[in-house]
Amino acid sequence: MAVIPKILVFAGSVRSGAYSGRTADVAQKELAMQGAEVTRISLADYPLPILDEDLEKEKGVPENAGKLGGLILSHDGLLIATPEYNGSIPPLLKNTVDWVSRVRRDGGRPVRPLAGKVAGLCSSSKGHFAGVRCINHLRAVLVRCQMEVVTPECSVPEGANAFDEDGHFRDERLHKSMEHLCRTLIETSRMLSTRIEA
Ligand SMILES: Cc1cc2nc3c(=O)[nH]c(=O)nc-3n(C[C@H](O)[C@H](O)[C@H](O)COP(=O)(O)O)c2cc1C
Question: What is the per-residue pLDDT across 171-194, written as a single tens digit (0 to 9) for each?
């Protein structure tokens, strides 16, 4: 029997009405429709201080980074929907990835939560370029964290006009690219499943 992949979905913005949050909503629905078991979280529920190695030495890795690490370990893949700040990764998302990359133990076991996990990426912005510069940077960072980042992406331009009243993409081409991304993420997560049940 085929494994039902577990995918963790979150956005790189906690702004109310964020385009990345709305993109994550579309991804969440599409992944569930294609048969994945989906967990949706908000990074607002995992506040973290700015990473500072003195702080890390003094107090260790924050509890919320450990919680996120444990959650990632119990999933096969991640779907991240990011905004773009100054052509790159917004600080909330980068800081979260950096802290999780410092998690080394989970309930006494040695772990690397991100290593070997599969990631699918979406970007969005209020402008024409749809956050495509950020998505390339994010891909490079996640590969550096030993993640398997799938090739298809879904980048949403003109966030203010991209969604209809029901939260669907107005542009059919965006819908197709989300379908393709989700299909690839599910297939790859199924093939490379390394999840550890919580
Ligand atoms: C500090 C900052 C830098 C930004 N830089 C970019 C940028 O490089 N490219 C872009 O398309 N939009 C940029 N924007 C605009 C964002 O696309 C817009 O604020 C968007 O709504 C943020 O994502 P969210 O809706 O998911 O919160 C920037 C916004 C901020 C606050």
Answer: 999 999 999 999 999 999 999 987
Is 96:139 a contact under the CB 8 Å cutoff?
A: no
Q: Residue 171 Cα, ligand 1 centroid: separation in angstroms? A: 21
CA-based nearest residue to 148, from 111, 181, 192, 180: 192
β-strand pairing of 6-11 with 105-106 = unpaired
**By alpha-carbon position, which residue is closest to atom 28 of ligand 1?**
85
Q: Which residues line ligand 1 (CB under 6 A)?
A: 13, 15, 18-20, 83-87, 124-127, 129, 131, 159
Domains parsed from the chain with CATH numbers: 6-197 (3.40.50.360)
Rounded distance from Cα 135 to ligand 1 centre (Å): 13
- Which of 84, 128, 133, 138 for mutating ligand 1's site (highest number of atoms within 8 Å of CB)? 84
Ligand 1 midpoint to CA 125 (Å): 6
Tokens of 101: 């990359």
DSSP 18-76: -HHHHHHHHHHHHHHHTT-EEEE--GGGS--PPP-HHHHHHH-S-HHHHHHHHHHHTSS
Greatest Cα pair distance in the chain: 51
Q: What is the pLDDT of residues 42-89, one digit of tens each?
A: 999 999 999 999 999 999 999 999 999 999 999 999 999 999 999 999
